[in-house]
Amino acid sequence: MSTDASGFVQRIDRLNADLVAQGRRVQTMLEAAFDAIFDRDIAKAEWVRQQDDIIDEVDVQLEQASVQLLADATKQGAELAVNHLRSVLVIVKVNNEFERTADTAVELADLVVNNKIGQTVFPDTFRVMSNSVIGIVRDVNASVMRHDPHLANIVLQSQHAVTAFKDALLRDAEEKLAKGQTTADAAFSLLEVATACEIIADHCTNIAEQVIYQTTGAIVRHVQTQWVQVPRAQQPPAAPTSPKSPSTT
């Protein structure tokens, strides 16, 4: 006899709310990490590092609660709809992406605390790039909160802009290095920050893919320079199982 699934749906809704709160924490960490980079603010960088413990604790709680929900539903014979099962899977995956994004924020903070950026002069375009990345994080958080596949698609396209920013900035740094207008240490610092921006954008696109999957069932794949959605009806069937060997008597 099946159990009414309404209680489990409410638990999923609470997990979603906790996930959104986690995304906001990570966004705040990133904003502080970039401010610490540009302002050489050690106190703010230390604050970012301290927040990582909270992110890690919530990360574990969300994963454990998701597993427990599925275990309880199985034990009680609750018939969860396919979209509810997808929601739980997405919560676990997005939760992991948020945790890894927070790790990148800590890496940025470490550059300040460990004095790895020294007197590096960041071009104005670096501030534009960091603001773009924060905007992507904000948009992907909103897509998670609203279950908005359209906004998630916008996030997917934004990744290419971050990559283009990074390539242009590094070309400029290489030219200045060749002309003796900057140092190798400064160029390396620029590379580290630009790479961190690209990594954050990558995590955001992973989250956006999950939002699209959760809301439409479509699986998103990156093909050359564009994103392609594979609708459920076009997804390849599961691999056939090996035939059983005939039993012998």
Short description:
The protein is mainly alpha-helical.
How are the SSEs placed, and which strands pair?
Layout: H1 6-39, H2 42-76, H3 82-113, H4 124-146, H5 149-178, H6 184-216, E1 219-223, E2 226-230
Helix pairs in contact: 1-2, 1-3, 1-4, 2-3, 3-6, 4-5, 4-6, 5-6
Overview of the molecule:
The chain has 249 residues and is mainly alpha-helical. It has one domain (6-228): Methane Monooxygenase Hydroxylase, Chain G, domain 1 (Up-down Bundle). The protein is built from six helices and two strands. The longest helix has 35 residues, at 42-76.
List the helices and strands in order.
Answer: HHHHHHEE
Largest sheet: 2 strands, antiparallel
Helix residue percentage: over 70%
Number of beta-strand segments = 2
Quick one: CATH class? Mainly Alpha
Amount of beta strand: under 5%
Class by helix and strand content?
mainly alpha
Instruction: Enumerate the strands of the largest sheet in spatial order, edge to edge or round the barrel.
Output: 1-2
